Fold this protein.
Amino acid sequence: MRQAGRYMAEYRVLREHHSLLDICRTPELATEVTLQPVRRLNVDAAILFSDLLLPLDPMGIRFDFVRGEGPAIENPLRTEDDLARIRDFEPREALGHVLETIQQVQQTLNGRVPLIGFAGAPFTLASYAIEGGHSANFAHTKSLMYGHPQAWHRFADRVAGLIADYLQAQIEAGVQAVQVFDSWVGTLNAADYREFVQPHSRRIFDALKDSGVPTIHFGTGTGELLHEMREAGGDVIGADWRIPLDEAWERIGLDRAIQGNLDPTLLLGPPDRFLAGADAVLAKAGGRPGHIFNLGHGILPMTPVDHVQLLVRYVHQYPLN
């Protein structure tokens, strides 16, 4: 999950002088932030520092980050005509700074740990573009989806094609795994997922089948969608903390790997509490191969760094047999 961020003092120092988008678009800065958690936490993989909204700008969907509020879309897509007006782009040109970051990170890592790339899934990217930012009920998105299904499918299919190409470009640049984030898809029920989301997410994973790298498929609030997400694709399916890991794995199928699923808010409490939580997750994994221990979502900004360091050490020392 997200590794770098405001809980790290060295990240906050950079943010005093640079906006989030400046860091994402400057390979030297993005490289430094990508490597900060590797140095401090001794994690088993680095996660590319970027933002899942970056592909929106070359599509013609302008956005920025408002301090304290998160991303804000300049002109949200609200009509069929809006959906049809997005632009296609070549990620190796429009997002070349991300690919340069990957190359710089790999030069610095020099094989120490693998590097994971990522991109947003069509539903989540569409929801940001349509809602204009965060949403409690996704009313605008669902209104377009239900009211204009053909326009929705055309739009989501174009986004899927662009994201598949973007991830392929990341793989060419040197990442050793890719993760597709469908952060907001848990707002849908299983029937809506199958109709409006699954075909487009599947297009991405199908396009990456011969890429030679593992693929991870993640969403939040997706306990009732895990089987459907498995069918959409991914060598690894992520589960958040709302469902026990063993139950999630049964829904996914034991022939797939699973990532998860400690509640990140546990790291705000005392060590005995979050280490007991880690014990519970690991016990439910049962020592089976294919479990990537992780949080159920990203590290929260107020998390003590020493808590994260302790958790990593504890999991590394955990007896598997």
About this structure: Residues 149-173 form the longest helix (25 residues). The chain has one domain: 9-238. The chain has a mean pLDDT of 96. The chain is about 50% helix and 15% strand.
